[in-house]
Write a structure and sequence with these properties.
Elements: E1 37-44, E2 55-60, E3 84-88, E4 94-99, E5 112-118, E6 126-131, H1 142-145, H2 149-152, E7 158-160, E8 163-165, E9 168-169
Parallel strand pairs: 1-8, 1-9
Antiparallel strand pairs: 1-4, 2-3, 2-5, 5-6, 7-8
């Protein structure tokens, strides 16, 4: 009796390399726009080794805290902000987005980027958040305040010369806190 070939759901990928990236996927706004920032970092495995074949997606509110309702997330027209971006890591495990700082969706709420990570060895996606460094609402955020300080720190970006840096550590020392979606 012959065995059928495994399906993508039964094997470890990634299988998205040719199908999911699209033109402008990492540009939520043009890099030259006055309020554009760079959100970037590395995706690292448990040994701290960069992962060159991961994919990072972000969802976010606009600068005024409005959650975009515009359709066409994968069709960039140069002016419509859809709040969605996707970026494959390069050969050094680095990702980079051109976007805007998200605003708070409600008064007193901490603004954040919602993040999804796909990578080799993962049978399912990972979900996390990126919070803005030094934002006054971070201290009262329900998620951040529920974590020990060391773990909460894994969810806050740092400012560097290029913009905001956020390294995603899949496991090991300083592992990024990942969330479940129910």
């Amino acid at each position: 009796m012959s065995h059928p070939l495994p399906t993508p759901g039964q094997t470890i990928g990634p299988f998205y390399g040719q199908a999911l990236p699209y033109d402008g996927d990492d540009e939520l706004v043009p890099a030259g726009r006055a309020d554009a920032i760079r959100l970037h970092g590395d995706v690292l495995d448990g040994d701290g080794t960069p992962i060159p074949d991961a994919m990072v997606e972000i969802w976010q509110a606009d600068a005024a805290g409005r959650v975009p309702q515009a359709g066409g997330s994968i069709h960039r027209d140069g002016w419509t902000f859809t709040g969605f971006g996707r970026c494959s890591t390069d050969a050094t495990g680095h990702y980079s987005f051109s976007t805007v700082l998200p605003g708070a969706t409600d008064d007193g709420k901490a603004p954040f980027f919602a993040v999804t990570v796909f990578a080799r060895g993962l049978l399912d996606k990972l979900l996390t958040r990126i919070y803005l460094p030094g934002h006054e609402a971070n201290a009262a955020d329900a998620l951040l305040s529920s974590l020990p300080a060391e773990e909460a720190a894994t969810l806050v970006a740092v400012t560097d010369a290029q913009g905001l840096r956020f390294d995603i550590r899949l496991q090991g020392e300083r592992e990024t806190v990942f969330l479940t979606h129910g």
